[in-house]
Amino acid sequence: MDENKIESVLLALQSFQDGYTARDVSRLDEFMQLFVQSDEIEMIGIGASKRGGPEWFQGMAAIREIIEGDWTYWGDVRLNLKDAKITVLGSAAWLSTDGMLISNQEYDKALPFYINTMRELLEKEELSLDARVAEATQFGVNRLRDRIYGIGHPWPFTFTAVLIFVQEAWRFHTIHWSFPAS
Question: H/E element holding 181?
């Protein structure tokens, strides 16, 4: 395995972490250069269960929008760069690592967003009435649980990604975040 390639992928992962640490929305377009410039890219969020469904984002615009939301409303992301397992084969690389999402004061700013999400879940006509109530309730209870644990609580997650070497740099193609089942 070419250690230089692995180090280069690790540098891309560090740049990703740096963006999530700084959370500077004014630099989001610059951050988006870490991604393959294609509408084929994907970011699969913690609540995803079906392509095209909630938390399954495809394309530059959708991923930019969710990252802006993460930087505005989500907690502090801390990827475990030291223990990241990186594999490189030609112009493709994949990695896995764990991390922590640390609750911060942004939660209060997110309350209107959470209430709107619950409203959208209640209005999903393709679901039965029972399913609508169940989805909105589960979402709300999870947000309430977050609030009860409070600021500073660490939520463990798993992070996996596929990167492609294009334009002389490793760029993210697919990212998947997941929390342990609760």
Answer: none
